[in-house]
Amino acid sequence: METVRVSNIKAIKDGQSYTRQSLEQLIEICQNLATFRESSSRKPSEKNGASGILRVESSHHLWNLVFVGGTMVLIDEEEHLVPTLIRKFKALKLNFQELNNIAERKSEGSDRLNLYQIIQQIYKQESEAAQRILREIIQENLLAIFLENSFDLTWQAKPEIAQISLLQTPFIHLQQITDLTVQQWKTLLHVRHPFQQVILLDADDPIASVPLFATATTGQYRISEIADRFRQDISRTAFKLDRLAEKRTVAILPLPLRPPKPEPRSPKKNVSKVFVVDDSPVLLKQLGSLIEAWGYEVSMCSDAVSAVEKMLIHKPNIIFLDLNMPGTNGFEMIKQIRRQPELSTTPLVMITAENNVANNFRAKWASCKFLGKPKSTNETAEFRQQLRSLLRELAPLSTDTLV
Q1: Contact (CB, 8 A) for 186 and 138
Q2: Which of 29, 296, 319, 361 is 20 to 30 A away from residue 45, measured at CA?
Q3: What is the pLDDT of residues 114-144, one digit of tens each?
Q4: Which residue has the higher pLDDT, 293 or 177?
Q5: Could you give the C-alpha distances from 128 to 76, 89, 96, 394, 396, in angstroms and in order?
Q6: 26: how many CB neighbours lie within 10 A of its CB?
Q7: 365 pLDDT exceeds 70?
Q8: What angle is formed at CA 210 by the lines to CA 209 and CA 216, rounded to 5 degrees?
């Protein structure tokens, strides 16, 4: 992809990608789209303003900014738009089966135009509620975008999107509102982004006894999701969580990097397979993405009860187990694994935050390796190095791409 100066983006080209663009450059492109006429448009009577999708990719997230006639009508964060719509409508006691069907089929990304048409139908049926929710989604995602600083951009002209009729707010107005919100967020000490996740540190704090708070601070939910759960303004929620982080009642987790795009690989007869068992969806996602990026085939399971059965199906070359899981523990699972002839010699690695002498001894007694989870971001590099060494030792790749 080509790096282009902002002065050259005034005539943005369909399909052209622009890498390492600043926030200021992104804003200028959005402003230019309001007066841009598609090069394929030859009718003098057509109004200025582009219709299509501006694909915005940061190191953490991927958005589709939907423009109709130069006006931004929707911000679609891939894989999150449908769950967000369902969550926000549910708070208003509204349920739309069309959205549920997309979520169940996990087909959000298969036909975005169809998705936007479904949103348009909902907009017509429940205009007031839909306006409120779509405005929240645009403002939350613009805030998320404005709090990042480098983007890869691709403009995709889509004349068929011009038929989509949704809430239309001039971009300059959205920008002004977002600029004011960003100024407030930049005064926070611990919260940096509305998509950061939160984990409870001090279970003895009185607020930890509030069931809704306890379930929302398990490291699985974004600040934007927590705000919806408490039915609060997202900035109010951020300020409250920032104060709790200052007291070390909670920790605000750093944004995970988007996994690198996998490079095409020629088929291999012997692909090293890794199986990970952990009840934390956050750890599963981060660890799985890292190991996959190194060239392994990864299978994951958050349910200890069904884990062994799934291992027998996937036949892994190495298994990583969490020490403490609901319903059982890692040492009990080791016994179950070793009873299976197909898994009796498979290398096992125990992973846990409880890195102590007793657990190390029990792991060696059970003939498995031991890997301590990082307790802070300062320990991430060491954890990565230890993980890399274990994979090289116990399940080496035919071509070592661990870097």
Answers
A1: no
A2: 29
A3: 999 999 999 999 999 999 999 999 999 999 9
A4: 177
A5: 20, 12, 15, 58, 58
A6: 24
A7: no
A8: 110
Q: Please, what sign has the CA dihedral across residues 93, 99, 101, 105?
A: negative
Order of strands across the sheet with 151-157?
17-21, 151-157, 52-57, 62-68, 71-77
Distance CA 152, CA 57 (A): 5
Strand-pair category, 328-329 with 250-252: unpaired
Residues 276-287 have pLDDT tens digits of: 998 888 888 888
Q: Which two tokens stand for residue 63?
A: 């958005």
The pLDDT assigned to 2 comes to: 41
The residue among 72, 52, 46, 32 whose CA lies nearest residue 168 is 72
pLDDT in tens, 46-96: 456 789 999 999 999 999 999 998 899 999 998 899 999 999 999 999 999
**N residues, the chain:** 403
Task: State how far the Cα of 257 lies from the Cα of 260, in Å rounded to an integer.
Answer: 9
Do the strands 71-77 and 250-252 form a parallel or antiparallel pair, or are they unpaired?
A: unpaired
Gap between the Cα atoms of 224 and 197, Å rounded: 9
Distances in whole angstroms, Cα of residue 33 to Cα of each of 5, 13, 29, 54, 118: 16, 11, 6, 10, 25
Q: How far apart are CA 12 and CA 368, in angstroms?
A: 57
Average pLDDT, the chain: 85
For residue 197, count other CB atoms closer than 10 A to its CB: 21
Cβ(278)–Cβ(306) below 8 Å: no
Helices 223-230 and 234-246, axial angle in degrees (round to 10)? 110
- The CB density around residue 223, as the number of other CB atoms within 10 Å, is 26
Q: Is 99 in contact with 105 (CB distance < 8 Å)?
A: no
Separation CA 373–CA 2 (nearest Å): 39
Q: Tell me the C-alpha distance between 385 and 403, whole Å.
A: 10
Sign of the CA dihedral running 235, 240, 242, 245: negative
